[in-house]
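Supplementary Methods. Inverse-folding protocol.

Structures were first reduced to a discrete structure-token string of length 124. This string, shown here, constituted the complete conditioning input.
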């Protein structure tokens, strides 16, 4: 926990910046939700087949899906989404060139009862 997925239109020239974005998001969201940095996991998925609006090639998207262990109030989830969107725009918006990009964030609950985790100790 937290689990983050970054999905983006593969045609965008942002690939090299995405690992840095992930780390920035880890720090910002950790402060928002009082989570340990070591517990964050981010998956980055380029999407080859994205259709937006009338299908014109000028359209593209970057979407963050953030999953937090359940129990946090709506105000915390809202603040987390706003902070994540600000990081997303700050890190990527200047790179997108002439594309009309939709930057979106969705914050979900990750049900504590149904989430299971085991971590191995790398030092052994």
């Amino acid at each position: 926990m937290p689990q983050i997925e970054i999905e983006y239109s593969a045609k965008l020239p942002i690939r090299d910046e995405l690992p840095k974005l992930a780390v920035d998001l880890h720090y910002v969201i950790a402060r928002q939700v009082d989570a340990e940095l070591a517990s964050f996991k981010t998956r980055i998925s380029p999407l080859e087949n994205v259709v937006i609006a009338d299908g014109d090639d000028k359209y593209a998207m970057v979407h963050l899906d953030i999953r937090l262990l359940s129990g946090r109030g709506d105000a915390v989830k809202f603040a987390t989404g706003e902070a994540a969107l600000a990081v997303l725009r700050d890190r990527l918006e200047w790179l997108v060139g002439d594309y009309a990009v939709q930057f979106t964030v969705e914050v979900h609950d990750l049900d504590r009862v149904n989430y299971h985790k085991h971590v191995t100790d790398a030092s052994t």
